[in-house]
Amino acid sequence: MSLIVHHLNNSRSQRLLWMLEELELPYEIRFYERDRRTMLAPPELKQVHPLGKSPVLEDGRIKLVETGAICEYLVEKTGKLGPADHDQGLRDYRQFIHYAEGSVMPMLLLMLAMSKVPLLGKVAVRKVQPMVDTHLDYIEQVLASRPWFAGQQMSAADIMMSFPLEAATSRAGLGPSRPATMAWLKKIHARPAYQAALKKGGSYAYA
């Protein structure tokens, strides 16, 4: 039985398609489109899960939300894209699996929300930018020291980190001043599995 991905355009669920392509697992995509005025997910997603969010992964009777939890489930299911077999690799893997959504994305979402506030929004964004820069500088330091977030091999931690860093290129000023991070983005975008996921997933503004 194929896995089912409930996929929202221009969303974090693009990461899940990439991961499934890397794992070479068969899957079916069920597509949902954002409201063009509000950019919110459509109400139909609440028929899939009470939170009305994407991605949702169905594996038979199992239904999962939260991309990090889904990634960890797929790592356990396949034995692939997990941490390196040593303590430091495991610690780095765990850290970046959770850091993507726990630390980086909240700052980017705050910047997005503030940017839409009339008049005072731009002032608020300028106040938040130094906090975002602290994260981007830390990420640059990590990627300047090793090729992947959890060490010498790509893992689910890299998949988790892809969306916030892609979003940061358009929302938070990530660019050539952080060459190791930009090189990492170029590297993941060139992967055949990433390209296959883009082709299947449809509209995605950040690649």
Task: Produce the secondary structure layout.
Blueprint: E1 3-8, H1 13-23, E2 27-32, E3 56-59, E4 62-65, H2 67-78, H3 87-115, H4 120-145, H5 156-171, H6 179-189, H7 192-201
Parallel strand pairs: 1-2
Antiparallel strand pairs: 1-3, 3-4
Commentary on this structure:
The protein contains 7 helices and 4 strands; from the N terminus they run βαβββαααααα. The protein is of the alpha+beta class. It has 2 domains: 3-81 and 193-201, Glutaredoxin (3-Layer(aba) Sandwich); 87-191, Glutathione S-transferase Yfyf (Class Pi), Chain A, domain 2 (Up-down Bundle), CATH 1.20.1050.10. Helix 1 (13-23) links the parallel strand 1 and strand 2 (27-32). 35% of the residues are buried. The mean pLDDT is 92.
Estimate the mean pLDDT confidence: 92
- Helix content estimate: 55-70%
Largest sheet: 4 strands, mixed
Structural class: alpha+beta
Provide a concise account of the structure shown:
This is Glutathione S-transferase family protein. This protein has 207 residues and is an alpha+beta fold.
Descriptors for this entry?
Glutathione-S-Trfase_C_sf; Glutathione S-transferase family protein; globular; Glutathione_S-Trfase_N; 7 helices; Glutathione-S-Trfase_C-like; 4 strands; 207 residues; four-stranded mixed β-sheet; Glutaredoxin
